[in-house]
Amino acid sequence: MSVHTNSPELKDKAVYGVIAEFDRPEDLVAAGHRIHHHHGYKKLDALTPFPIHGIDDAIGVPRSILGYIVFAGGLFGLLNAIFMVWYTNGYDYPLVIGGKPLFAWEFSIPPMFELTVLFSAFAAVFGMFALNGLPRFYHPVFLVKGSERATDDRFLLVVEASDPKFDINGTPRLLDELGALRTEVVAK
Amino acid sequence: MADLAVIQDPHVSPVLVEGNPSLHKLTADVAQIVEGMNRKTPIQWYMALAMTGGLTLVLFGMLGYLVMTGIGVWGNNQPVGWAWDITNFVFWIGIGHAGTLISAILFLFRQKWRTSINRFAEAMTLFAVACALIYPLFHTGRPWRAAYWLLPLPNTHLGVWPNFRSPLVWDVFAVSTYATVSALFWYVGLIPDLATMRDRAKGLAQKIYGALSLGWRGSARHWRNYEMAYLILAGVSTPLVLSVHSVVSFDFATSVLPGWHTTIFPPYFVAGAIFSGFAMVVTLMVIARWAFQIEHLVTIKHLENMNKIMLATGTIVGYAYATEFFIAWYSGNPYERFVFINRAFGPYAWAYWTMISCNVISPQFFWFKKLRTSVPFMFVLSIFVNIGMWFERFVIIATSLHRDFLPSSWGYFTPTIIDILTFLGTFGLFLTLFLFFVRFLPMIAVSEVKGMVANQAMHHAVHGTAHGPDTHSPTPGMQPVTGGSHR
């Protein structure tokens, strides 16, 4: 076992959590599953170079609510387009062109469709950033030596200190037992 | 979305990554291209940049000359009021369609082979759309005022709004939405790879990649929203890409001009756009995979699949040409008949038969496996397709216009030197942007490729090789996924 703290005087309150390193995604999922479902930890996260499926169920990450945000964004775009075409061509400055009606849904379909797509896309991207709290240029895990490999070929399991079951000595030991290659206590 | 995951059968899966590299090797293979082939940019890159940069300066010179002088410097005039400007606009927009097809439609169809080429093709989309946008913008003559003419902006110097009954305004909305959504999709896909670049870089490069990656750290809670965002973007981009070339075709189809006024245009234009776009991806990819030694990531299988799509869409395009002729005859409309006979046998017959040879005949060689897996052959053929698809737009536009209803209004369009140099210049801009892209950004979506490789390995580990595709993972809570896709 290799509990390694950054500094021996780390107090519990200054601790962000513990990270455990794995080199295979299936080990990460198995360890996450055990620590969440068998040992009852809840404040868990995983840092991985690509999405690992099954990790959400294993460590209890809820389903994304982004779809609702995008629906609202798309609806906003649609209503915007209808209003824009009606207001500009049908109300504010009516011009009869080619004997066509001043406003009709048929010729409004292209702008309606395009603005629905445009605002759905904005909602998807900026909604995702908002839900993820990005941009965020500082995070305790960035200070961990080796965390940079979470974007390369390592799979990290994070147990946050705010978890009621967290124990500065017991948690790293448990992670070691679950097959971690290495564990490290992370300062806040 | 994990329930949508399809387990890949190792026996039928094509070779998408050769040589069984480790995850770290995959990261390094892609990142080292950006890091300058072991920190040194190859001299060939500078030589290529000098050439394409020179052409870009030619473009800027020509556009400057146009703005100073007027749009009369282009050859279009009555009766051919639309000529190379719209030809080139449609040509470039069409090129972009392959990028979105690969990134969105193949994603929804769970085509794993898209992973190695999607970033590259999406970049191509963005740069092609940038080249396309030059034409309508500069055809206004005063591009700094174009925003007031194209977009519904409140203004005092016109006092009126754009006319939403016009397909040209629809086009503004379609193309600008397409450009914006393509850029968002591309950037979202880049974020995890930018974080990888940040974690490998030092000094200033680390700060730049760090800022661009927004502090991405690969958290499972983030991946959850990220995958949903990616899926939704693919979902909205799929109808979007089909709508863009449909709306472009409305520019022609809603007019009452023989040769343009036809309901076949939207699907015919979309198929042609995908056809030309894949040809351009193959042209560029053949060079890039050789120049950057990524033949193990972009394998012959990827190229073959793209050639198959070219065969399919090229055949659809050929079928559309035949249908147009049939309908011209069947309509009984003498003007419609005249336009099509004139198209094939009139003064622009040389352009028409160039188009037929390049677009209809040449892709038929891809029926033969030996030819569609031959890199030199596909390179030459993809260039033929690019030429053919440019001629298709030229033929549709010029031949329908140059002989008006009255023979006294007949004419023949010849491009000016400004037309020609402007078009060459757009290639300069396109390739310059591409050179910057391959030099500074990871050209392969490495997180997606790693996901695909790791999930394949996981599948092997869990099932061995003797099982079929219908076996399920016994590990609780764990579902192998097909890679390639953030789901």
Keywords for this structure?
heterodimer, A: 188 residues, alpha+beta, Alpha-Beta Plaits, 2 domains, five-stranded mixed beta sheet, 5 helices, 5 strands, disordered N terminus, B: 487 residues, mainly alpha, Formate dehydrogenase/DMSO reductase fold, 17 helices, 68% helix, disordered C terminus
Short structural summary:
Chain A is an alpha+beta fold and 188 residues long. Chain A has helices at residues 25-38, 55-59, 66-92, 105-132, 170-177; strands at residues 3-5, 15-22, 44-47, 155-160, 182-187. In chain A, strands 1-5-2-4-3 form a five-stranded mixed sheet, covered by helices on one side.
CATH superfamily of chain B: Formate dehydrogenase/DMSO reductase domain
Question: Kindly state the mean pLDDT of chain A as a whole number?
Answer: 83
By DSSP (H or I, 4+ residues per run), the number of helices of chain A equals: 5
Alpha-carbon distance between the two ends of chain B? 6 Å
Rounded to an integer in angstroms, the radius of gyration calculated over CA atoms of chain A is 25 Å
CATH topology of chain B: Formate dehydrogenase/DMSO reductase fold
* Helix count from the secondary structure assignment of chain B: 17
Mean pLDDT of chain B: 84
Please give the domain count of chain A.
2
Overall CATH class of chain B: Mainly Alpha
Radius of gyration of chain B: 24 Å
User: Largest contact between protein chains?
Assistant: A-B, 74 and 79 residues
- Work out the strand percent of chain A: 5-15%
Strand content of chain B: under 5%
Largest sheet geometry of chain B = none
Strand order of the largest sheet of chain A: 1-5-2-4-3
**Global shape of chain A:** rod-shaped
In terms of quaternary structure, the protein is heterodimer
- CATH class value of the largest domain in chain A: Alpha Beta
